[in-house]
Amino acid sequence: MKKYAVIVAGGTGSRMGKEIRKQFIELHGKASLQHTLEVFFAAYTDIHIVLVVHAAYVEKAITIARNTGHPGSIIIVPGADTRFGSVKAGLHRVPDDALVFVHDAVRCLITPDLIRRCHDAAVQFGNAVPAVAPVDTVRLLNAEGNALIDRETVQLVQTPQVFAASSLKYAY
């Protein structure tokens, strides 16, 4: 089955309070975005990546793509004003018969092993998302104030989220 990753890198990083966007901040001499791209290629050399970036940063994304050693496997697409719109824009470049990973560009500490495990679970079950148990106390706000939630019953969903492309396109 064909493998595609829609990697969204259009965020402004405004909560971080830096002038440079998070996806372009350097870690060990490379933009965090480049680390993310490279880990997907480390997991699967036959993967195709649809990189969705703000239109003003397309040239910068092209330069980073060239530095991965796999520029021919990266399609760069201008993003939208929202994450939803950016993922949707990226999905237009994914064939219906592919398995598609949706991942946030700034999540560069992902491992090839996690990517492969998500892929294998999606092949087996039709889709997959990684999730972790919270370590913090979890409270639910309500009309009376708040209520404690048993964290043993909660999972925090992360990326990459993996789906049959035709199903995800239909959902969008």
The largest sheet, given as strand count, sense and whether it forms a barrel, is:
6 strands, mixed
Provide the low-confidence segments as ranges: none
End-to-end CA span: 21 Å
Rg, nearest Å:
17 Å
The spatial strand order of the largest sheet comes to 5-4-1-6-12-7
Mean pLDDT, rounded to whole units? 92
Classify the secondary structure makeup into a structural class.
alpha/beta
Q: How many separate helices?
A: 5
How would you describe this protein?
The protein has 172 residues and is α/β, with parallel strands linked by helices. Strands 5-4-1-6-12-7 form a six-stranded mixed β-sheet, sandwiched between helices. It has a two-stranded antiparallel sheet with strand order 2-3. The protein has a two-stranded antiparallel ribbon with strand order 8-11. Helix 1 packs across helix 4. The mean pLDDT is 92.
Protein traits:
single chain, 172 residues, alpha/beta, 6-stranded mixed beta sheet, two-stranded antiparallel ribbon, 5 helices, 12 strands, 30% helix, 29% strand, globular
